[in-house]
Prior knowledge:
Layout: E1 9-11, E2 15-17, E3 20-22, E4 37-42, E5 50-55, E6 60-66, E7 69-74, E8 79-84, E9 89-93, E10 98-102, E11 109-114, E12 123-124, H1 127-140
Antiparallel strand pairs: 1-9, 2-3, 4-11, 5-10, 5-12, 6-9, 6-11, 7-8, 7-10
Amino acid sequence: MNSVFDCPILDLPVVHDQNGKISVLENNQNIPFDIKRVYYLYDVPYAAERGGHAHYELEQFVVAACGSFSFILDDGINKREVFLNSPQKALHIKPGIWREMKDFSGGSICLVLASHEYTETDYIRNYEDFIKYVQNDSSDS
């Protein structure tokens, strides 16, 4: 089972010249999985919260492409808050981590690169079910 401490914030490669910057993310190069889905959140209203779920198998790389927002990561034992505000950083969220998002700045864009295509059966959407899953998984170890 993964812990919130297994979800690092990674520095992305940046190429910079007088015309701007570019960061490149590539399958199995600087992302340790094949990207199967890309989506982004934007126009999130002030004080809105997103997330509120975990995944059995899905991994994600999350980038604050514009603006800022916070993640609350929860492994059923530990909680950790992560603030993203740079397109040069990515949060790698491992499977089995409950996540909630909050504090979106105006104009923020949250870019998500996912290891799997959308499958509803991969979601744990109820926190009590998540805690049962974590407890069962840890008792199997």
